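Hi R.,

Here's the chain you asked about this morning:
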Amino acid sequence: MTNFVTLDDFDHRLLARVRRNNLEPARVTAEAVGLSESAVLRRLRRLRAEGVIRADVAMIDPARVEPRIVLHVLVEMNTQDRKVMDGFQARMRASSEVQGCWDVTGPTDYLVTVAVRSMAEYEAFGIRELTPDKGVRSYQSMIVIREVVGFDPARAVLGR
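And the predicted structure, written out as tokens:
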């Protein structure tokens, strides 16, 4: 079970700033949120230690790196057996094609985002990962034509 962390207004302001730019100098952040530079650094260290800030990462624009076909795949499992579900989740985590995977409610068990260089590569992924012997009953693929709104950490809701 997740242990929730109590956050005050300063913590929320800090998180909003690092969500937009985690490389912003502490002195700039401190001035913007109304704390001293040392208080900002201490709070950020605590937020990382408590797991509120899970990682400091770079967001890469895949369109600038190499051409990709992005698909959203709705996966329905043929069983709710925990061992089968855990195995599927482990395979999704290990697959280089999988950009995201969510356990969801409704008639679909998983929403998987896949990025591949070609439809042949997607077909190979499907044959390798989305077959009945892997616990998959069926799947439906939706090819992304264009991104309208992508993940933007600054837009992510933080309960405020």
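The helical segments are 9-20, 26-33, 37-49, 82-94, 119-129.

Let me know if you need anything else.
M.
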